[in-house]
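hey so u asked for the seq, here:
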Amino acid sequence: MTNEPGRLWTIRDLMRVAIDHLQRNGIDDARLNVELLLAHALELPRITLYTSFDRPLTGDELKRFRALYERRLRREPLQYIVGSTSFMGLTFAVDPRVFIPRPETETLIEQIMVVCSERLPDQPVNVLEVGTGSGNIAVTVAKYVKLSSVTTIDTSELALEVARHNARLHLVDQAIEFHRMDVFEPVDQLLRKRFDVLVSNPPYVARDEWDELQEEIRGHEPRGAVTDERDGYEFYRRMIELAPFLLNDRGDVLVEVGYGQAAVVRQMMETAGWSDLRVTHDLDGTSRVVSGRCRARSRNAVINN
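ran it, structure tokens below
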């Protein structure tokens, strides 16, 4: 997008030029990007742009927009630039401390809601989440699942700060316990109570796939939230190992998986003797969630990594 001193820019003109420029630079959803960046720069609702097409922009407004726009050209994720993203109809604060929630993870939430609805009515449901990130899963479950209480763990205190903020934002902080913990610690050091449901959207990108990811991910999102630095299955193995010691009898486990991973994760659960195995597809038709039910085991034995 060229700099033309003295030119009078209207919202319509600026959007047209910026959208075309982003498209030529290979950025997907160029119109959405420009709309959100401009609305953020002008501190206006996005819809207002379309009712103010002929409004001229001041020099300060152009300067604010250009600063945001240039960050996007450098492949910084749009969500980090505007400081928020939408998930399950809720707005979540996000920044480089946390992985950005994706629409496909809404499939995981939907399946959690199904599993919880199949339990006895009017009975509390205790949910454990591994890897909270921005808190989008924990907050959404606490908000939408009746009588739920959520315990969520993450190794990053920086991520937990964001998650706690989002819980307060949506008024569910009293329904969520946040703990800085590593799922690869011994089970007796993790938590002292049992749960009904274990959920997770773990790092599932293999180390040798890292260089193939988009620049927005490789250059900006926390690496530890994306890859397990191994074959992509390390967290699934650990959760399948731990689940019988963390869940009540016939507790449910639901995990999000990456493209092509569902069959392998399902086989892991089957080999462990689990029942009610199910693979659920997201709206794009990708196998996205694998779930199963396991029997509880005594905690007399300590499970170490």
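The longest helix spans residues 59-73. The two ends are 53 Å apart (CA to CA).
lmk if thats what u needed
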